[in-house]
Amino acid sequence: MRFRALIVAFLSFFLGMLTILNGGSALALDREQMTYDEIVGTGLANSCPTVTSFSRGTIPVESNKTYSVSDLCIEPQQYFVKEEPLNKRQEAEFVEGKLLTRYTSSLEQIRGSIFVDENGVLTLKEKDGIDFQPVTVLLPGGEEVPFFFTIKKFVGKTEPGFTSINSSTDFVGSFKVPSYRGAGFLDPKARGVYTGYDNAVALPASADSKELQRTNVKQTPIGKGTLSLQVTQVDGDTGEIGGIFESEQPSDTDLGAKKPVDVKIRGIFYARIAPED
User: Fold this and answer.
1) Are the C-beta atoms of 103 and 76 separated by less than 8 Å?
2) Please, are residues 249 and 177 in contact by the beta-carbon 8 Å criterion?
3) Helices (DSSP H) in 148-240: which residue ranges?
4) In degrees rounded to 5, what are phi and psi of residue 251?
5) Whole-angstrom Cα distance, residue 247 to residue 177?
6) How much is the CA Rg of the chain, to the nearest whole Å?
7) What is the CB neighbour count within 10 angstroms for residue 75?
8) Taking Cα atoms as reference points, which of 134, 127, 125, 132 lies closest to residue 229?
9) Stretch 210-227: mean pLDDT, rounded?
10) CA atoms of 69 and 25, how far apart (whole Å)
11) Which of 218, 245, 266 is the last residue of a domain?
């Protein structure tokens, strides 16, 4: 019995030390201090930095001044696709999907600016960066929905009356959604926007039908999406902010051959705010 108790005590001590060591290494993990070989294939590059949950500070802002936004990172965590119901009496609902794109879904290194007007309205404008990712989502029924996850040319505004960026600051606005495929892409029948064939059907007499015309005449339409950035953590000393976001945008149209569906994305974001010189 004493021997068994000794074994139990030893295992408890060993597991406790292992937990402490693992916890310490996890807390010390920093992408900026790691090499490429240490990061590649782990998924760490797809994770955005986070602000400590205890940071509830403020970043003061002054009217008629502009502040720079750097290292904006947007990490999606949930995907929903609006499906039309089988019963016409029911309304369309968003159904959660599963991400098929591995480790390449986050947007990062995005730059922008925040302007404060005389009414205390903060306007966030996206400038450039890695601000797009081709993403595919799998629905429960087996359908795969590709879309161009982006926040290109995002312009978001807050309510009036702000003298600082705090945990009550929300930027709400719209952005542009480029075509999922470029103008040089060719479909299986070698049809494209500026390359390939203009018409490739078995019966040319039926080429005037609307359905075939949409498939034959390739397009790269620009869609429109909406985005809400809700700040929940602020570190006034470092100028870091973090929070949650919700985005809604259209899916791929297969170069205009089909109607897009609405896609909703939720997740977290991170950014650094500093006065412009």
Assistant:
1) no
2) yes
3) 210-216
4) -90, -175
5) 12
6) 24
7) 18
8) 125
9) 86
10) 30
11) 218
pLDDT at 140: 92
Phi and psi dihedrals of 181, rounded to 5?
Answer: -110, 150
What is the b/e burial string over 120-131, where b = at least 16 CB atoms within 10 angstroms of the residue's CB?
eebbbbbeebeb
Residue 207's pLDDT band, with cuts at 50, 70 and 90, is low
- Tell me the pairing of strands 144-150 and 122-130: unpaired
Predicted local distance difference test score (pLDDT) of residue 77: 95
Are the C-beta atoms of residues 142 and 41 closer than 8 Å to each other? no
CB 262 within 8 A of CB 81: yes
- The pLDDT of residue 201 is 62
Q: Please, which residues have CB within 8 angstroms of residue 270's CB and are 6 or more apart in sequence?
A: 48, 49, 50, 51, 71, 72, 73, 240, 241, 242
Structural domains in the chain (count): 2
| Backbone phi, psi, residue 4, to 5° | -65, -40
* 9-25 residues labelled b (16+ CB within 10 A) or e (exposed): eeeeeeeeeeeeeeeee
Same-domain status, 175 and 67: yes
Write out the residue range of the structural domain in which residue 259 sits. Answer: 53-181+220-277
3-state secondary structure of 213: helix
Residue with tokens 């939720």: 266
